[in-house]
Design goal:
The structure is a single chain. By secondary structure, this protein is an alpha+beta fold. The chain contains 10 helices and 4 strands, in the order βαβαββαααααααα. It has a 4-stranded mixed β-sheet with strand order 2-1-3-4, covered by helices on one side. Bound molecules: glutathione. The site of glutathione has 8 residues, from loops. It comes from Lactarius akahatsu.
Length: 239
């Protein structure tokens, strides 16, 4: 067996692949990677010591052809943080178009990712995990919608880029969780957010965009609806 150059450490799920922007990027690039699943609830000690000191996935080891994933060679590069991984995958596979060639379009991709990271994630987590008002999340979604080109399929034109990979898992989870009222907010608070974002005329553009990204094989392969529902039922159980 030959050991590939990239070992991708990702969250262990019951079956299928985890919802993860880097996973989507690897699939879009048709990259040959070795996946190593980490149980985030019960992380092995070697993971922080040898791969990511912060102890989080996703992370990867690069340039260590003969490494055992549990003991990667000290000379290999250890890379973490989703957004950094996205850029790294795009750099490794320039022909994938995950980052356009044109500098202006590259800047647009990065601007979009920055907006997703700084504007969408904090209020998404605040609503989902802390039950804070969803208003800031809906406002952030409106800002993201404004960034979408009027007719093109994806965030920056008609080619799928890392901008789409960055947002896809979060839109997918929003749709699924809020439709099913999964979250640490009061009972019944999820479906109105789902209706607003995924049904209302106000968010028609975002809905069309979500249809485009969620129909990609890369999304479908990594978005295991049945598993996510089963896990959310325990994770977000109301007592
Ligand atoms: N900022 C990090 C966040 C990664 C993250 O939250 N990872 C979770 C799993 S999706 C994790 O490893 N949790 C285990 C822990 O924090 O101990 C990124 O974007 O990559």
């Amino acid at each position: 067996m030959t050991t590939p150059d990239i070992i991708f450490y990702t969250a262990k799920v019951r079956h299928g692949l985890p919802v993860c922007s880097a996973e989507i990027a690897f699939q879009e690039a048709k990259a040959d990677v070795t996946r190593y699943w980490i149980d985030v609830a019960n992380k092995p000690e070697w993971f922080a010591a040898r791969v990511n000191p912060v102890g989080q996935v996703p992370a990867l080891v690069y340039g260590s052809p003969k490494s055992d994933p549990e003991n990667p060679s000290p000379g290999s590069a250890k890379i973490a943080e989703s957004v950094v991984l996205l850029e790294f995958v795009a750099d490794l596979y320039p022909d994938s178009g995950l980052l356009p060639k044109d500098p202006v379009e590259r800047a647009r991709v990065r601007f979009f990712i920055d907006a997703v990271s700084t504007k969408v994630f904090p209020p998404f987590f605040a609503f989902l995990y802390r039950g804070e008002s969803p208003d800031a999340f809906i406002a952030a979604a409106a800002e993201i919608q404004e960034l979408l080109p009027p007719t093109a399929q994806f965030a920056v034109g008609d080619h799928f880029t890392i901008a789409d990979a960055a947002l896809a898992p979060f839109l997918g989870r929003s749709e699924l969780y809020f439709r099913n009222d999964f979250g640490r907010y009061g009972e019944g608070a999820g479906p109105p957010v789902y209706e607003e974002l995924f049904r209302s005329e106000r968010f028609e553009r975002l809905q069309k965009y979500f249809a485009n990204i969620s129909s990609r094989e890369s999304f479908k392969n990594s978005f295991d609806t049945e598993y996510l529902i089963a896990r959310a039922k325990t994770r977000f159980a109301r007592h």
